[in-house]
């Protein structure tokens, strides 16, 4: 610990320094002959404790403390005075003055006062170190949380409580328009993830990377047109691609929406916009997709594309089949060119295979065995391709469902006190984040964050029976970094604060 002694009498400085070093040999001590010199020395020396004489030529000790306190608020002061009247005591206490020593002071009084103040300084330093470590841990957790929130917002698997709290913690602005960009990168390019996040950090939030696809929620910049903002960001991201891989990078851009509840629509649109990556440009807006026909059915077709996302993800194969049959009949009634109709149906089947890929299900790209020559043949070929996709889906689920959910639940229960994320779980069990999220919703009726929260709160309730543990200690032990956030979550789940719950618990126990 560093100590600065400020006194205009040299003999006083030497005497105090001698006493301190004999009783506290680990101290580093420097001396200043007046307040002005003390201010200059403090900047370079950075002492934790200053002994300040009150009456000195020029600037008084109290004036010096006031000057230093504004710049170095953690420094503690012990005032030295030959006067027993302390008219200025109230003001001095506000400036960090911890005690007074009267000249001449007894050696025992000096030692006792210094030991006590040093103890306070060390306790505060320990608290600052603890806060710093927690802040570092929090900063490391933020990117993980960001990816989780984005991923789950886009797939509607987060309970409202968690959305509100997590968005608040991340400082995400919920108001204003937002849109989604889906970035497709070649396999083996995972190492670009960090660079992509760096390029996006001021503009939006990046989700989890699975397969080739990386979803990005972009916050609308009102000072720019949507097209200008999206193109600028798209070009920045595409510039990251190595020279030989640039044709394999592609970005789909969805429309703008006002709320996070609608953001899934923009995500679906952004992914649909990537269905043809053979364009002469490397990005495309959903709004630029060509119309289906001149008959005014373009809106219905686009809505069908979006519905298909949810139907495939939820395993609603009967509904998918009915929709495709209805579409083919509609094309036939409108006497749409057969090749054109075949291409449109194939695009929808492609969307189905893309959704399966999101879930971690590898399916062969749907292709017709030959050019169809009648609408009857188109119907038969389409049903065959759809059955193949459904078979792959059902086999994959049947194989993994039972074992996976138990494995994931056990992992979360055992590690609930750690920073658990969808990406982390996915890496552990070798499944896609989206599949895990869906699995929880299908099997348990909740999302994984709700399950993780329940695990943490149940553990906290058990720890509260130990009267020796503080609520702050319990907060950190169960995996939360912020006691206030822990209290909010607890109250929303149980209707009372942790403090109120513990009080009731102890009264029943007593």
Q: Work out the helicity level.
A: 55-70%
Radius of gyration: 33 Å
Please tell me the total number of domains. 4
Order of helices and strands: EHEHEHEHEHHEHEEHEHEHHHHHHHHHH
Description:
There is one protein chain. The protein has 510 residues and is an alpha/beta fold. The protein has four domains: 104 residues, Response regulator (Rossmann fold); 117 residues, Reverse transcriptase/Diguanylate cyclase domain (Alpha-Beta Plaits, 2-Layer Sandwich); 99 residues, no CATH class; 108 residues, Arc Repressor Mutant, subunit A, CATH 1.10.10.60. The chain is 58% helix and 10% strand. The protein is built from 19 helices and ten strands. The protein has a five-stranded parallel sheet with strand order 2-1-3-4-5, with helices on both faces. It has a five-stranded mixed sheet with strand order 7-8-6-9-10, sandwiched between helices. Strand 7 and strand 8 form a beta hairpin. Helix 11 packs antiparallel against helix 13 and helix 14 packs across helix 15. The longest helix is centred in the N-terminal third of the chain and has 49 residues. It is elongated, with a radius of gyration of 33 Å. The chain starts with a strand and ends with a helix.
Give a quick set of tags describing it.
4 domains; 510 residues; elongated; transcription; 5-stranded mixed sheet; Alpha-Beta Plaits; alpha/beta; 19 helices; AraC family transcriptional regulator; Rossmann fold
């Amino acid at each position: 610990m560093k100590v600065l002694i400020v006194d205009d009498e040299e003999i006083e400085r030497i005497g105090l320094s001698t006493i301190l070093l004999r009783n506290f040999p680990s101290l580093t001590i420097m001396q200043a002959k007046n307040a002005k010199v003390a201010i200059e020395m403090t900047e370079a020396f950075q002492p934790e404790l200053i002994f300040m004489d009150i009456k000195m030529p020029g600037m008084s000790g109290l004036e010096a403390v006031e000057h230093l306190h504004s710049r170095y608020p953690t420094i503690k002061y012990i005032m030295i005075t030959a006067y027993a009247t302390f008219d200025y005591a109230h003001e001095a206490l506000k400036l960090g003055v911890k005690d007074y020593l009267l000249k001449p002071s007894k050696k025992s009084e000096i030692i006792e006062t210094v030991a006590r103040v040093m103890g306070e300084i060390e306790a505060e330093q320990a608290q600052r170190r603890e806060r710093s470590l927690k802040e570092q841990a929090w900063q490391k957790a933020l990117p993980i949380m960001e990816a989780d929130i984005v991923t789950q917002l886009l797939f509607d698997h987060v309970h409202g409580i968690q959305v509100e709290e997590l968005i608040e913690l991340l400082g995400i602005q919920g108001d204003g328009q937002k849109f989604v960009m889906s970035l497709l990168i070649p396999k083996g390019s995972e190492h670009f993830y960090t660079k992509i996040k760096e390029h996006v950090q001021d503009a939006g939030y990046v989700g989890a990377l699975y397969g080739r696809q990386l979803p990005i929620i972009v916050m609308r910049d009102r000072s720019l047109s949507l097209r200008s903002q999206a193109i600028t960001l798209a070009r920045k991201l595409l510039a990251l691609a190595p020279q030989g891989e640039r044709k394999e990078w592609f970005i789909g851009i969805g429309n703008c929406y006002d709320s996070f509840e609608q953001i899934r629509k923009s995500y679906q649109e952004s992914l649909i916009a990537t269905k043809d990556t053979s364009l002469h440009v490397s990005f495309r807006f959903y709004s630029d997709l060509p119309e289906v026909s001149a008959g005014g059915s373009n809106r219905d077709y686009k809505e069908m594309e979006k519905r298909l996302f949810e139907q495939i993800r939820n395993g609603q194969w009967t509904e998918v089949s009915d929709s495709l049959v209805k579409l083919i009949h509609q094309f036939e009634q409108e006497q749409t060119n057969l090749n054109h109709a075949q291409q449109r149906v194939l695009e929808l089947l492609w969307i189905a295979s893309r959704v399966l890929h999101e879930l971690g299900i590898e399916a062969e790209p749907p292709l017709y065995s030959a050019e169809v020559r009648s609408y009857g043949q188109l119907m038969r070929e389409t049903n065959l391709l759809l059955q193949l996709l459904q078979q792959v889906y059902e086999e994959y689920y049947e194989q993994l469902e039972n074992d996976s959910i138990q494995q994931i639940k056990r992992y979360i229960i055992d590690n609930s006190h750690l920073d658990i994320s969808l990406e982390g779980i996915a890496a552990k069990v070798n499944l896609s984040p989206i599949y895990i999220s869906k699995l929880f919703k299908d099997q348990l009726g909740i999302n994984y964050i709700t399950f993780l929260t329940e695990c943490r709160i149940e553990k906290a309730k058990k720890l509260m029976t130990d009267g020796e543990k503080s609520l702050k200690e319990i907060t950190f032990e169960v995996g939360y970094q912020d006691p206030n956030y822990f209290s909010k979550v607890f109250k929303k789940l149980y209707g009372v604060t942790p403090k109120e719950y513990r009080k009731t618990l102890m009264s029943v126990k007593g």
